[in-house]
Specification:
The protein is mainly α. It has one domain. Helix content is about 95%, strand content about 0%. It is rod-shaped.
């Protein structure tokens, strides 16, 4: 075997030293380079997977928020419709009340005007009766005066 190694120019001492050097270099590189790089990659993988999970959770929360927003908007729309209907009903009721008050006030004014007119009519009739009575008295006085002067002559 020495003959083969010598033929090819291989020194087994040098080969053994190179193998030990390679093993030491491999151990040093493994300890100072490969292991830290692998730890860093693992940490990065964990961060990325956490980011993916967080993004999925955020998307789910966004969908849930959008759904809740739609429900709130629908509820607000219904409430607005009911408030508008209540306002219309209250407006109609107020309109009827005001119309009834106006009609009652107009009827009261008509009654008052009729009473005033009846009062004026009664006064006018009373004044007319007094005038007629005065005229009758004056006419009777004239007639009696004319008759008395006709008798006295």
């Amino acid at each position: 075997m020495d003959a083969i190694l010598t033929t090819f120019g291989i020194d087994w001492h040098l080969l053994l030293i190179n193998a030990v050097n390679f093993g030491l270099l491999l151990a040093v590189l493994w300890y100072f380079l490969y292991a830290p790089v692998m730890r860093m990659l693992e940490q990065r993988r964990v961060v990325v997977s956490q980011g993916v999970r967080d993004a999925a959770a955020a998307a789910a929360a966004l969908a849930e928020t959008a759904q809740a927003r739609a429900l709130v908007l629908a509820e607000a729309g219904k409430e607005a419709d009911s408030l508008a209907a209540a306002a219309r009903a209250a407006g109609t009721k107020k309109e009827r009340e005001l119309a009834a008050k106006g009609e009652a006030a107009a009827a009261a004014l008509v009654r008052e005007a009729e009473a005033h007119a009846a009062d004026l009519k009664a006064r006018a009739i009373a004044e007319s009766k007094q005038e007629v009575a005065k005229l009758i008295v004056l006419g009777m006085e004239k007639a009696l005066t004319a008759q008395g002067s006709a008798l006295g002559k």
